[in-house]
Amino acid sequence: MKQIQKRKNNAKQQEKKKFDSSQLIKLMTAQKQKQQKGSKDVENLIGMSFYKIPIQKFSPEINQYLQKYKKESKNMHNFKATVSFIQCNLSSLEGLKFDGKQVKHLRADYNSLKGDSLQFIAQNFPNLLTLNLKHNQIANLEDLVHLQRLKNLEYLNLSFNPVKQFQDYKSTIFQYLPELQNLDNDADVDDSMQDTSEDLMLYSSEEESESSFDDYEESSDEDQKKKNKRKKVKK
Asked: Which pTM was predicted?
């Protein structure tokens, strides 16, 4: 119980922090470098993935960084296939400038995305095979209509979204996606505070994830101290 409460408190603290685009890009770069140190198999699986980076919204600077990330990727096939923004404090995907036609797997779980995000995804990621949006704020059955544009979708996870409260939820999904093979993992087990195997691939431990924020703040403090010393020397 103490560990769960600690995670909740850490999540709240991170949400309160305000990061500008340059700070976010520094965090994203650090996370990318940690991913690249992992095994080749893990890199191929996760593709372009960001975990617990408080992006909130996609600025022009972040979009430019994502394009640079794409160009620098050594394994373009797998990079294009998988994109993840997990627990990134996103309330919308608007502003994301990314050619998603070749993306096969999209994860944006543990955010605060609403129903209009389904329209954005259908328009910008039309060839998805899997879509994971569990633990978001999709609330209306009417928004599910956009899913019918995802003709190739085989797996969909909308677990722990308000829309699941409706009795017609499943029938509506299969009305729009008759070829869907797996919906919500066929089970509603609240895993909101658990580390799944996929999450562990992104970070070897919760502490390591949290340290990325601390490392940034420490490095910023050190940089500021160095600048102050330089100013004193000049005087």
From this structure: 0.70
